[in-house]
Amino acid sequence: MAGALTRYRVMAWVTGVFLLGLTLWLIVGYTVLDYSDPANKPAVYALAWTAHGWLYFIYLLCAVDLTFRLRWSLWATAGILIAGTIPAASFIAEHFVVKRVRSQFDGVDLREVNTAAAARRVQRATAGGSTDSL
Hints:
Shape: elongated
Helix content: 55-70%
Low-confidence stretches: none
């Protein structure tokens, strides 16, 4: 479980920083650098957005992996996935996901929880907290 959480956290931050930087570049590009004229757009601009798309795809895989392992609701999963599309929202979502995972496994070393079955056993042993919402 610790590996899935770490992968999610890393990708939430990488995707969030990249999206925030690209959004700022987009704003500056269209307001100051006249990117409305295609001749003014550097080639790396399109490549950066494509790279962000691939990073977001990896973020999606990591987020779905984590939420499926924890057996969270579809709504919680969708909320986490959508957070990756809004600049800076992935940072907020990452904070609440980590907080919820830590409270769900209060007092348990997450490195010891490595399967869904083990996660369910730990959940039952630690008062069986609700996993229906984010």
